[in-house]
Amino acid sequence: MTNLLLVAGGRTLRPDLTVERADVVADRGTGRIEAVGPDVAEEYEVDETLDAEGCLVMPGLVNAHTHVAMTLLRGYADDKPLDPWLREDIWPAEAALEPGDVRAGAKLGIVEMIRSGTTAFADMYFDVDEVVAAVEEAGVRARVGHGVVTVAKDDEDAAADVEESLRVAREFDGAAEGRVSTAFMPHSLTTVGEELLREGVETAREEDIPVHFHANETTAEVEPIVAERGERPLSYADDVGMLAESDFLAHGVHTDDEEIALLAERGAAVVHCPASNMKLASGIAPVQQMLDAGVTVGIGTDGAASNNDLDMFDELRDAAMLGKLGADDAAAVPAAAAVKAATAGSAEAIGIDAGRIEPGALADLAVVEFDAPHLAPRHDDVSHLAYAVRGSDVRHTVCDGRVLMRDREILTLDEESVVAEARERAASLVERAE
Ligand SMILES: N[C@@H](CCSC[C@H]1O[C@@H](n2cnc3c(=O)[nH]cnc32)[C@H](O)[C@@H]1O)C(=O)O
Ligand SMILES: [Zn+2]
């Protein structure tokens, strides 16, 4: 047994975003790409082959910000701005969530992601052991964490929430044979009090734990910080020490020139969530400006209740479209930039060594079929990835050198029972919540 997987006969998206005829050999032992090239099939003895004839082999998409178990709340409350949506609908429903619900919702979301070619995600939620169990079973990769909210909690509960986030970050780092990594995850700069935020971040820094949080998502989140502190939110975040190179923040919609310069200087990444920003009418992130400044930009779906799906192809199209609208320039966020953000950019943002097809990189791949009418003719594969491919065009998904979906059949989870359980649990959750 060689333990090698061959992805044969396809065209391959290279790190420089060019496309060439090339096979890919992945080592299931190391989980890494062994070789890429037009003739590598002849050089290796492999024991498993995936047919990619007529397909494009690309890095697995990386969903750099989500709350995966929120699939159970998909379509539960729509058409409201962020603050009332969270306070009146989402948080009360989440208060009724049981650990088994989080497991079921996470599995549903992971099935959806595997189907649409996403191989890794960053997740902020609670009952993180359930998310980890789902990741382990499904075979995907994730950076997970417990979201801390201290507002409206007494001192003891608030401190316990911070402690839980640090505990989770310590305990699960390296789980699922190394496919799980972690971060300390204060929910946002306005939902976590300053003292506990500083303490938590300080501990995270001492222990080399990355920090992930929501920031500058709406003006309603920016204004109180400016009013109270006389400084912009990211200047405050910098002062707290949460803009290190390992750190990544979700949204960054309302960021000014100085904040963008600060991000570029410190090396913290921004995860752009265009669908969520449109749906909650949060605003338009200055993505092209961030890219021009040298900020690492990834893309995320955010939770399914504000999207309402976890299809990263939708997301990267939205990123390209909204980037143009926001910059008032059709040349802004071009196809290649959007594809890069959803792969290498997201991988860099959340700190995993994936998102590019080259020897040595993690063997996380999506094989996209180009046969459908909406993908004809085939002038430019990268254009299609940004503007025309849908998640349902993904034929095979590979993570860590292991095939998770072959010919649209998920091998690691029983899709039918995952969907059935999620439906049942969502129904009783809503009953309990109301
Ligand atoms: N420990 C916290 C939970 C925080 S998890 C992260 C939270 O982010 C929420 N969330 C989802 N989407 C967004 C968004 O776009 N902005 C801010 N929060 C969001 C999500 O519903 C979840 O409650 C508690 O006890 O309430
Ligand atoms: Zn979020």
From TrEMBL:
Q: Keywords, A to Z?
A: Hydrolase, Metal-binding, Zinc
Entry keyword annotation includes Zinc? yes
Needs which cofactor?
Zn(2+)
The residues covered by the Amidohydrolase-related domain are: 56-403
Query: What's a Pfam family this protein contains?
Result: Amidohydro_1
| GO molecular function (one) | S-adenosylhomocysteine deaminase activity
The residues listed in the UniProt record as binding substrate, with positions renumbered to this chain, are E94, H187, E217, D302
The positions annotated for binding Zn(2+) are H65, H67, H214, D302
Q: What class of enzyme is it?
A: hydrolase
Q: What is its EC number?
A: 3.5.4.28, 3.5.4.31
In the record's cofactor note, how is the cofactor described as bound? Binds 1 zinc ion per subunit.
What function is annotated for this protein?
A: Catalyzes the deamination of 5-methylthioadenosine and S-adenosyl-L-homocysteine into 5-methylthioinosine and S-inosyl-L-homocysteine, respectively. Is also able to deaminate adenosine.
PANTHER family attached to this UniProt entry = AMIDOHYDROLASE-RELATED DOMAIN-CONTAINING PROTEIN, AMINOHYDROLASE SSNA-RELATED
User: What does the similarity note say?
Assistant: Belongs to the metallo-dependent hydrolases superfamily. MTA/SAH deaminase family.
Task: Output this protein's name.
Answer: 5-methylthioadenosine/S-adenosylhomocysteine deaminase
Underlying gene: mtaD
